[in-house]
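Transcriptional regulator, XRE family with cupin sensor
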Amino acid sequence: MSTEPGEQALERVIAARVREYRLAAALSVAELARRTEMSKAMLSKIENAQTSCSLSTLGRLAAGLGVPVTALFRGVDDEREAVFVPAGHGARIVRRGSRVGHLYELLGTLRGGAKRMEPLLVTLTEASEVFPLFQHEGTEFLYVLDGVLEYGHGEARYVLHPGDALMFDGQGPHGPVRLLELPIRFLSVTAHGSHDGP
């Protein structure tokens, strides 16, 4: 059966997702065939992008793999927005900590749907002061690149070394408590949900 180029791309994506989820679930083709009440030959054709799937077939595949039908289309829209920031070229921005010597370098921002993510490279030097009272909506993730600092979140305290990570609810008061080995650089990524503020 001849297919249009767009259909072939869709078949290849579905083929890749079916194989990916089948292997992740440690299912053989025969086991998935039993779950979906399809023949092994048909499943082989699907995994090799040699046939188009009907909606009912997609539904059976998704149920057999334990995933939503939409998961089988992941990767169809290849054209997505991306932001590349060369080293040292992030935009310098002002935050509450700027007034106490914290340097913030924005590493890009994408706004997709109702969500937003903000990655910052934060640098603390001899000129920086501690400022442990940041509070904001969303979830924040820290990853230490250089130096050592004690970081507070609520009543908890964490001594962070290079390679250490910390993720927390941004509504809890947080920030550096003590700067132990300077200079300190850490990556801060804040994920804002649909109703979060900037």
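thats it. Strands lie at 91-93, 103-106, 110-112, 115-124, 139-153, 156-160, 165-169, 174-192. The domain at 91-191 is CATH 2.60.120.10 (Jelly Rolls). bye
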